[in-house]
Amino acid sequence: MKLATEKQGVLSRLARDRRGNFGMMTALLLPVLLGAGGISIDVTKMMMTKNRLQDAADAAALAAASALANDGYSVDAAKLLALRFIETQMRSGGNVDGEGTDTKNPDSNEPSSFASSTIDIQETATGKSSKSWVINVTARTDMDLNPLTRLLVKDKAAITANTSAESSTESKSALSMYLVLDKSGSMLAPTTELSKQTSCDEYNNNQKRIYQNKSPCYVKKIEKLKTSAGLLFDYLNGADPSYKADGNPSSTYVRTGTASYDSAMRTSSSTAWGTNGARTQVNKLEADGGTSSTAAMNAAYTKLTEKGSDGLIKENKTHININGQIPTKYIVFMTDGINNNSNDDVLTLDVCKKAGKAGIIIFSIAFMAPKDGPEAFLEQCANETKGGKFFSAVTSKDLDAAFIEIGQQAAKTIARLTH
User: How far apart are CA 353 and CA 190, in angstroms?
Assistant: First the structure.
């Protein structure tokens, strides 16, 4: 009995003795506390990595969209570009603590830590020669967790970011383009492109006939100008979503006009919707006379900037009434030789400067011009405008390429994020 009583007393004292309780509780809770601390650190790192991955996904989607619309990339090539863009963006930014960074060459075909990212591109034909794309990007990467977090959960955390972008070769931005074309006698000279004619007369740059009933025949510069300008008109038509081949309506985004010149301005049309009127005017051109570009360039500038009685620019108001936009304005200035009067160079450059101040973009072209010809003058004219460009077209193919590039530059649409 006494022994039992003593045992009960020991147990009672032990139950009442709280010395060492804190140590035991600490030992039990320490893994949980350390794990919680690790989680709080990793949550911050995950948020930062998520933001950086989202930025990389957005940049990749825009890069793919731009490459498809402006650089002629195929869908597969654009997908690869987007994936490598994600890798490069994440690598250049680096992880918060440097863990989990992919070290493979971005140009390598080896799988990377972003190989599970998916790039989906939907391509749709929207016109004769135009397409649109929807790019959906899901970027994924694994982030290594710190050892404290691993006490409670897994070793890695999956981070995901989603975004979408759209681009198109359609010109959904309004534009007005005025062509100023040289029809002087030197445009009768032959190019290096063979003609379908079996025999023809051939002229030199001074309008002098040097061969009669010559064979084979070569396309004259004036005729080449017509077909090359036609490529520009075709491109603008194909890029305009409202264009219809029957011309009814011909456009709600694109307006064009033309002026031609030799020793003086010979034709000058008002801008009109679409390209039909401008194409007709160009196809009627016949080479003759000297060279004086001032009046034709001034006509182009006036047509694009003239104000109405209400003080508003007529060309702007016409676009706003139809498509709600202020158009981007262009002048395409082409010649194959120098002005007969040097004062014309000065006066024409004055027009180029005024055009630049008015926000007009000038594309200038020297077509098979002599070595001491108008290249410097034309380049200076284009450089007076922001976004302007000079083209030296030495061959027929060069002239085709110049007009095609002008069409691409005028019609291209900026890619935009949609989500």
Answer: 33
Q: Which residues contact 318 (CB under 8 A, 6 or more apart)?
A: 255, 271
What tokens does 349 get? 């450059």
Q: Phi and psi dihedrals of 300, rounded to 5?
A: -60, -45
3-state helix, strand, coil in the chain (%, to 5): 45, 25, 35
Please give the single-letter amino acid code of residue 220.
K
For the chain, the structural domain boundaries read 31-168, 175-414
AA letter at 233 = F
Secondary structure class of 271 (helix, strand, coil) = coil
Task: Say which CATH class 175-414 falls into.
Answer: alpha beta
Given the DSSP bridges, would you call strands 416-417 and 209-214 parallel, antiparallel or unpaired? Answer: unpaired
- pLDDT for 392-419, tens place per residue? 999 999 999 999 999 988 876 555 566 6
Tokens 């890619």 belong to 415
The pLDDT tens digits of the residues spanning 347-393 come to 999 999 999 999 999 999 999 998 888 999 999 999 999 999 999 99
In this prediction the pTM is 0.62
Reading the block at residue 228, the tokens are 């090359």
Closest CA to 415 of 64, 114, 9: 64
